Automatic annotation (TrEMBL):
GO molecular function, one term: ATP binding
Reaction catalysis annotation: tRNA(Phe) + L-phenylalanine + ATP = L-phenylalanyl-tRNA(Phe) + AMP + diphosphate + H(+)
Cofactor details (free text): Binds 2 magnesium ions per tetramer.
Co-factor requirement: Mg(2+)
SMART domains, alphabetized: B3_4, B5, FDX-ACB
Encoding gene, per UniProt annotation: pheT
Keywords: Aminoacyl-tRNA synthetase, ATP-binding, Cytoplasm, Ligase, Magnesium, Metal-binding, Nucleotide-binding, Protein biosynthesis, RNA-binding, tRNA-binding
Record EC number: 6.1.1.20
Family of this protein: Belongs to the phenylalanyl-tRNA synthetase beta subunit family. Type 1 subfamily.
Keyword tRNA-binding belongs to the record: yes
Protein name: Phenylalanine--tRNA ligase beta subunit
PROSITE patterns attached to this UniProt entry: B5, FDX_ACB, TRBD
Chief place of localization: cytoplasm
Domain TRNA-binding: from-to ranges: 38-153
Amino acid sequence: MKISIDWLKEYIPVTHTVEEMADKISLTGIESGPVKLGEELTGLVVGHITSVTPHPDSDHLKVCQVDVGEDEDIQIVCGAPNVAKDQYVIVAKHGSHLPNGVRIKRGKLRGQESNGMICGLDEVGVPAQYMPKEFENGIYVFDQPETPGQEVYDLLGLKDQMIDIDITPNRADTLGMRGAAWEIGATYDEKPSFKKPELDDTKVKDSNNLSVKVEEKALVPDYLVRELKDITVGKSPLWVQRRLWNQGIRPVNSVIDAANYVMIEYGQPIQAYDLDKLAGELTVKKAHDGDKLQLVDEDKVLNHNDLVVTSGDKILGLAGIVNGKLASVDENTKNVVLEAGVFDGASVRKAAQRHDLRDDASNRFEKGVDNGIVSEALVRATSLVDQFSTAKEISKEIVGNYTKAEPTVIDGSIKHINHLMGLNLSTDEIVKILDRLGFESEVTGDKLTVTVPTRRWDMAIEADVVEEVNRIYGYENLPNTLPAGMETRGGYSKKREFSNKLRDVLLGEGMDEVINYSLLSKKEVDDFNTIHSEYTKLLHPMTEDHEYLRNSLIPGLVRNVAYNQARNENDLGIFEQARIFNREKGVARPEEVEYIGGAVSGNVVNGSWNTKAQKTDFYYLKGIVDELLSFTNADAKFEYIATSDYTNLHPGQTAKILANGQVVGLIGKLHPKYQKSQSVDDTFVFELNIDALFDLNPRNVQSQSAPKYPSISRDLAILVKSDVQNGEIIDDIYANGGKYLNNVTIFDVYEGKNIKTNYKSLAYHLEFLNPNDTLTDEEVEKAFSLVKDSLVQKFNVEIR
């Protein structure tokens, strides 16, 4: 909510700068900041166009003589389609400054001298979407004569100073100028004064053509309307229009502008209908499934949860949100109905979100409106319409539903209030603070009874009174005290330390950390549901792309890769450490499980004069994962088991990661079809369950001295069928190599020419070591023979 200082001056005296006021308000707990419009504007004046002639060398340009209050008219060349003689317009003279650093200079347009510019509102700082529609494609023209040469800033509100209040949801009372005046006035010990709106009694008649019915009284505690007959719809006064466009509201006509003006003034939304377009009784009820609301640019399909305003079989609008076009007020309207009501905030919020129709009105109903000023706000709107459009007859208030607004009465104790604040204020000081807020107080001994006006519906208990006294007294004035009690030693839990260690390992590997939303689309949760979780859908998702809680980190990482590769950043190594959500069938709430996942693509090493480029592959990522698993210090056997179970991973380059036979993650290359659908190049991913890794028994690490005796190595080359995995071979070598087999590494893999079809050649380096004695060739050869014999028997290998 932007609080106009010029408007605020109508209620309280304002003697401070907008910066000082914003700072002062922020200290009361409501975040605010100064807004100064049009600080860069200079040289803008009213001009009177005295003549318009066609440009001799252009079909669309016109040469205008303009009176700007100087001794002689100045000549300006203008291309606006609506420029005409005798108009009063905005003129930027030679040397003027406009928004975005634009400076106007004297010059020639197709040979004709031009000494300035005739401006549209968007050219002087009013956003195009908020200025009157009739001036969208042309210059702005004043409705009535103004003094040539007069500065236009105050006329158009171009240099209005404002305070932008960022309210918390419970302080919706400041969504109106009057409520804001109470808040700011209390800050400076100034009580606002308001003029009560009145109607011309000679026009008010006890007759009406309309009946009103509210079927959902629980959702609509107040619903009041008035009829105005034989009006003339036109433009609203300039002072109304400028206040509206500075609030981000486009002026439309004298009726709609009056309704919107009251919404900003009182915080009470007002709706207007063309009485002659109604088809019968005005009714507030629930819609039926499949009903349609016709808006200006689209139709909305409604359901039985939507609260609507109808007339006969016509749906006029969504209650508290938006009106349709069936009974809209336009320049031909002669009889109008004004509506003021209070609608259930939850119902309005859900409907506005469901149909993507949140606006200024729905925002106020969602947060709450003052049901104590509904009737007064309706009178104010009626009086403004009468003032702007001259009604011949006004009906009395027509009541669809009415709930008497009762102030909230809160009992408290002076002593207890001081105790909670840590102060020792006198009774008079506390009462004075409450009086500044417009609260009535009664004191009987130590007992304090506070009567809170209906505009402050956020207050209910003594603690609320304490908060108000604290705010106005000043949080900065509260005494400083050190916390009492035992000191606690901070630190991370064991699981958090474990998780942080894994994160540091990947950072040390040169990977970059990313953070993604925990919400995915339906397709994304389908793509990598490797844990076979039930999906968890939000009741009210913001968009279709964020409907479900994630069951894997991989979709988010793939999205990161696609984003970077689309911007020619192809050499990527990224990871994310976050929670996924696993929900078992029949369970209401998902379990949050800590995971860590990564993705690599592009080159590991870029080519240069002495090196060749090296592309990322499965084994490069496997090396990173091996390093990561080594830092878990788990007393477990980690295995990689090839699998084709995952649809969107390459069936020949994918493996499950097992710890003691339990699946703790996966690693693999994205399937080519999936890569194409996601617009990414070759990408390899992994994912590990941190919770499962943490639950593994830790390994006891003991230091030992370096071996004193030399090792003996043997190389082994074998020919084996292609479907036999390297891991199986190594496991068998360790199983038969004896107690002195210290290490086994594979150093060559070959398939192709001179090798039998469906066979591959593998070469291993075996290292034997006895830390306590010198090994003999006989011991090594004996163990080596057992290794070869076992491989021949189990895998039918050929020793080469």
